[in-house]
Amino acid sequence: MTDYIVRHLGVDRPEAxxxxxxxxxxxxxxxxxxxxxxxxRVDHFLQETHSLPGLEALVHSHAHDxxxxxxxxxxxxxxxxxxxxxxxxxxKALGLQRLxxxxxGFESMRMFGQxxxxxxxxxxxxxxxRQRLAPGRCELVEDTLVHQKAARxxxxxxxxxxxxxxxxxxEAGVRLRRRPVYVDRRVAGLASLMR
Length: 195
What we know:
By secondary structure, this protein is an alpha/beta fold. 43% of the residues lie in helices and 11% in strands. It folds into 2 domains: 50 residues; 139 residues, Rossmann fold (3-Layer(aba) Sandwich), CATH 3.40.50. The strands form 3 sheets. The protein has a 3-stranded parallel sheet with strand order 5-6-7, covered by helices on one side. It has a two-stranded parallel sheet with strand order 1-2. The radius of gyration is 17 Å and the shape is globular.
């Protein structure tokens, strides 16, 4: 995303990184800030930032993760701020595509004529209603705490997936042993979901 901002807004890398973080913090998705303040086209941004040639060779799953997802009861719906085609590509590369009943990507998260990705609480309620699920019967497994907070606000249970939490993402500096009050469980991997 930072490279996209450098190329298309004509700013240097530190400024691009600052804008990426600012818009993510303010709008929940960098893209929303780019659309609102710079006139970036959603489809262009999603295509440019998620084409990633050779992705399939870079991602891999583990048999224990696959087994854990198979054993996990209930419906599995992937809700992602990435484009649906990209999410399906990743699921296929990981051998997980058959385990998910539905994939809801960024482009499907529209309400009132505007994109409303995670952490928008109205969108989370809308997704539950469309899937005929009471929020209290849903569990959001997610690595981003602000999304967890929104899910809890609408009544969902929350699981903080810490496997991919890095030093440079939105959770940088957060103590992983800490469990915020809006997080029901912390897990390090998919196999931990069954415990």
